[in-house]
Amino acid sequence: MTNLFRNISVLLGGLLILGGMAFLFANLYLQSQATRERLCTQMSLVLGMPVEATGISLTPWGGLVVHETSIPDSTGVQKNVVEIEAVKLRLSLLSFIRGRTKINEAIFFSPVIVIKESEDGTWTTPPLLPVDGGMEQAMVDRSDPSDPSDQTDQTDPVAPLTPPVVKAIKIVDAQLRLINKKDEVVLSVNDGSLSAAVGEKTAGTLRVGEVVFYGRVRVTDAMSPFSWDGRVVDLPSIVARFCEGKLTGEYHLDASQGQGRFDAKLALEDAQVPEFFTMLGASNGVAGTLAGELAIEGIHADPATFTGGGKLVAADAKIRPLEVLVLVGTMFSIDEFQILDLSEVSAPFTIKNGHVEFADTALRTKNLVLDGHGTVGFDGALDIAAALRINQTLQRQFRAVLSSKFRDTDDPEYKQIDFNVRGDIASPQTDLLANLGEIKIVNEIGGLINSIFGPGSKKPEQEKPKGTTDEHR
To answer: Which of 19, 36, 287, 324 has a beta carbon 3.0–4.6 Å from 318's, enabling a disulfide?
Structure first.
């Protein structure tokens, strides 16, 4: 029995030594310059673009791993369009040596993709997602007929390369940045993952932790079925989170012309008003929910091409108005100017010429109406013509000097004063206070005005005797 155990131990030890030697020789083979170039060429065939790598390793538990893979930028705008921490290939090493590579699964770890718009407005999109057919062009792109070192060595005993067969692909923890010719990040994607089978279409499931448009609009926890046919990206059933609400819809991207033309249809429900205003860089939202719909199309990098429209509906919303209205409400003890309590607001809009255009939209409370129309740019710029209408209850609370500034309306119950809103969403500016005319208020209110409108505003004239009141014009 002892001899049997000894023989088995010797046999197992021998097998381990042979296995270790096999892996050692395999790694020596893989680490050679010729093999690394061969594997990069195979990966170029898979991805459709020339690929570079710093090293290759093979382990029993990890399979074949290509380290620090990159795709250089052929336009010279930047060093690399793609940098990948590691690529794990589950393949038959024997088939690779014979030149007929069969990749059961390719896993891309932590790819970082930075795509810049060229001066002529086109984009070079690295296709990390293979489809059957069309892989031979990468071999042509990779070789240089004028360079003898790039020519196939006819004496190489290894069989010539054929396009590899890829059965499945995974992408883990991906990041994507689209940067236009003005060096603005128009699209940012973080924590992206994909699991897909490869055929005439690469199809599977896409998950994204965060998508940010123009550094402002943020969508999280997105998921959708996914397909790519070498020309069009199709996300037919998106489910995501937006301002703590539910976002659903579909998205299509045609990358065939190098411009990134897209179209999308989205629906929103139960988004939170405070989070919506915070996302826009403002703090006006207090409470309430948002619902809406959007249809949009255009070229990602050029907001001037965006067209579409939709509608936003706020329910049971409480919104803090412009600071100037809060100030006026403080001056005349009008609580309704502190917080606008809105039962329902409907705001239809259209998208064109690089901005969102709102039709007449009314914010109505018990005793006042704020309405307006105008545009909000994708950069947050405001250009709104607005009006404040107050009923007879509020008119009695205004001093005569103020109420005389309001004009009659078609509704005898209300009087109105017009004003404009400029600046941007985070710091809107209005001429309402100037339109109200002369107001006598105490020094403390004067200081408040200065703090709101900054040192560039017109300073009050202080009366030397007594010094108890200021005049503001």
So the answer is: 287
